[in-house]
Design a protein that fits this description.
The protein is mainly alpha-helical. Helix content is 86%, strand content 0%. The chain is elongated.
Length: 171
């Protein structure tokens, strides 16, 4: 029983905080996993397979269908990550000023990832859609190449962020 009277407010408060942290942490990890894992799958598996199996127009049509479906889940992650991140900061460190440097690095990398994602969704995806609808395949291929480059950069940033989170390097 660890010398704890489970009916006391102290033990029940500690248990509540631990349970709350576990829930918030789990949601945080799942959101990051969906976003970074989805980019890894798209970059390392789907992109090369689509390049081999599909001709240019069909490949562009595929991506026009894939991106909105994936981006819906990225938006969920974009919302869940800061909410759960702030929750963990308050549950574990009692505020931003007491959070270790690796947490601040993670927040900065998150901002970079969101900026790249918004650039893809707001600027590049509509351009890709227009090119596919107009059957302007060379233009669509050029847009897809820009998206691929931005997703690749975002994947690298995401993997670095995951490494920072896993190692909790002290900076």
């Amino acid at each position: 029983d660890h010398g704890c009277d489970w009916s006391s407010d102290v033990c029940s408060s500690d248990l509540t905080r631990m349970t709350a942290f576990a829930l918030v942490y789990t949601l945080h990890v799942l959101a990051a996993l969906i976003w970074v894992g989805g980019m890894f799958f798209a970059w390392m598996v789907l992109r090369p397979a689509a390049g081999v199996a599909l001709e240019g127009p069909a490949r562009l049509k595929l991506w026009v269908q894939v991106f909105p479906r994936f981006f819906l889940w990225v938006w969920v992650a974009v919302l869940v990550l800061p909410i759960t991140g702030v929750g963990m900061i308050h549950l574990q460190f009692a505020g931003f000023e007491l959070a270790p440097r690796y947490v601040q690095v993670m927040m900065g990398l998150y901002v970079v990832m969101v900026a790249l994602f918004i650039r893809i969704q707001a600027l590049q995806l509509p351009e890709l859609r227009r090119a596919v609808v107009a059957e302007q395949w060379p233009e669509g291929a050029a847009v897809l190449a820009r998206i691929r480059r931005l997703v690749g950069i975002n994947l690298i940033v995401g993997l670095v962020l995951v490494a920072v989170a896993a190692t909790r390097f002290g900076f």
